[in-house]
Amino acid sequence: MSGIRFAVALACALAATGGTAIAADYEVLMVNKDSDGRSMQFEPAFLHVEPGDTVTFIPQDKGHNSETILDMLPEGAEMWKGRTNEAIEVTFTVEGLYAYKCMPHFAMAMVGLIQVGDSTANMADLLEQRLPPRAQARLAELFALTK
Question: What mean pLDDT value characterizes the chain?
């Protein structure tokens, strides 16, 4: 394809999408043991996504769910609460950090963190929350992965 044809095709493609990036889809598995041998985990436990992206939480093993941790998401963001043993799809629209848990295994450190966009403005608020000790320690590891 010549340079001019490519430029025209690219311009048409951007016009068709409104000039915005196409949203991405991610999967997070809920497992009894992750690839590093840790019990009761989300895999991956940390994701960096963009506004408009969707994450599907999929139970690989029975007994797991995904739900936000109270007061551990950006202001204006919507909470979610999946049912045990069922997948749940969440689309992220508000930039910031979202901490989430598997309710049955929260005390066992089955927590995860999603960074939407480049904002970490709500990190101080998340760090102030009191959690079960193992969950707190696991989230500290995940906070270190933010950009």
Answer: 90
